[in-house]
Amino acid sequence: MAVTAAYTRAVVVEKQANPSTEYFVLPALKAMGCRVERRGFDDLPPADSLAGALVVLVRYAPSGWVELLSRVRPQLGGLVFFMDDDVLDVSASRGVRLKYRWRLWKLAARRKGWLQRHRAGLWVSTPYLQQKYAAWNPTLTLPAALPPEVDDTTALRRIFYHGTASHAAEIRWLQGVILPLLDREPRLHFEITGSGEVVRRYARHPRVAVIHPMPWPAYLGFTALAGRHVGLAPQLPSAFNAARSHTKFFDITRSGAVGVYAADSACAAVVEHGQDGLLVPMDPAAWAEAIATLAFDDAGRARMLAHAQRKAEALSHG
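-> structure tokens emitted (318 positions)
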């Protein structure tokens, strides 16, 4: 992409963090040497703060920004609309769900005339879009590969908790352990099963994967996939939990991981601390420390996994 205009500051307007911004817009602005400020649809800045800035609308032109930019357009350094789908032509989305087409019209297609009246530049992602909108003299903006989260991806560790609706209390309790731990340790990722409340509690974190509940045969195949390191089995005291068995030990071991188990849980009856898992009191700080230590102790984890696999085999045969 060749951009000759000199800008020192860009304001990127996006619905939320998204691949369009990450793959196309940010690399282009970085190549231009711009300092970037990212804002959501409702995150409107003071009008005078936009003076001299390049404002880039990613895919959509929401009403609040349209009103603001209409007032301050003469003070802007520049205005650009970026699209990586044909969002300005509703007819191009025939066959797509009506609700989505309505959103395209409301946030993009009906703004085409407004964009042109306010002399917005057009950045597009493909030669097809460049040719279709040739009268607008669009700039072809090619994607760039994203840098890895960490320099060495082999340093990443996956923690997981596969609970069900009957583990709601433990899911709530773990939130206070896992989210601060992820914030502190960028090499950790967390996988949890659930929907609804689980999504609301956990999915905001970029290194949490919320897995939708699945039938048992599918779950067996899913947990056979490699790449899990530490499994969690918290257990809070309750009449319901008093009747639980130690099947979490089998689930975690079958996944190729080593478990952190509640010290007073059903699993404590079969797990030997430090030999085939860790038994930890239900204290958030103690759990965070145990998880982090176990996740990065590769030799110790391999030794404990071997013991756990032998024990699981022995328990299965009485």
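The first helix runs from residue 19 to 31.
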